């Protein structure tokens, strides 16, 4: 009887050990599979925000109040807080590419268009399509 009890305990310990190993393995697989996607998402968010606060690119901070910015903020243009809730991805994309489509008299520069611009030297867009997508992704996250 004592021998059966020891075998039963040993089998129980082995099963617990196997469950732990399976759990650990599944967690590792999850990390390997999900890490690139999670890293890419974080990179896009960071890149969009950096573009928006960088004077060489978007420089949105010069005119807009932005989430996460402390200290002196601008109120020249509308706040960007909550824009992801107010506008669709398509609308945000159009605002960034060329806000003149919504308001012909806007002072917001067209970041993705040179159409009807005068004296642009060199004649090139401020932000690439990829950079605009990163900015829009960031705007969408501000709900």
Question: What this model shows, in words?
Answer:
The protein is mostly helical. It has one domain: Cytochrome c-like domain (Cytochrome Bc1 Complex, Chain D, domain 2, Orthogonal Bundle). Helix content is 55%, strand content 0%. It contains 4 helices and no strands. Residues 31-45 have low confidence and may be disordered.
List the SSEs and their pairings.
Elements: H1 2-53, H2 83-86, H3 89-98, H4 129-141
Summarize the structure.
This protein has 143 residues and is an all-alpha fold.
Please describe the structure with a list of short key phrases separated by commas or semicolons.
143 residues, mainly alpha, Cytochrome Bc1 Complex, Chain D, domain 2, 55% helix
């Amino acid at each position: 009887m004592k021998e059966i009890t020891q075998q039963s305990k040993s089998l129980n310990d082995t099963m617990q050990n196997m469950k732990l190993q399976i759990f650990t393995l599944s967690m590792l697989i999850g990390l390997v599979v999900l890490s690139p996607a999670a890293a890419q998402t974080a990179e896009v968010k960071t890149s969009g925000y950096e573009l928006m606060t960088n004077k060489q690119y978007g420089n949105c901070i010069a005119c807009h109040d932005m989430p996460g910015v402390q200290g002196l903020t601008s109120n020249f243009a509308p706040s960007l807080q909550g824009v992801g809730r107010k506008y669709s991805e398509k609308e945000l994309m159009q605002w960034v590419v060329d806000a003149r489509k919504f308001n012909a008299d806007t002072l917001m520069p067209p970041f993705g268009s040179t159409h009807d611009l005068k004296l642009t030297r060199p004649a090139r867009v401020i932000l690439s399509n990829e950079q605009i997508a990163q900015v829009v992704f960031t705007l969408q996250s501000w709900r």
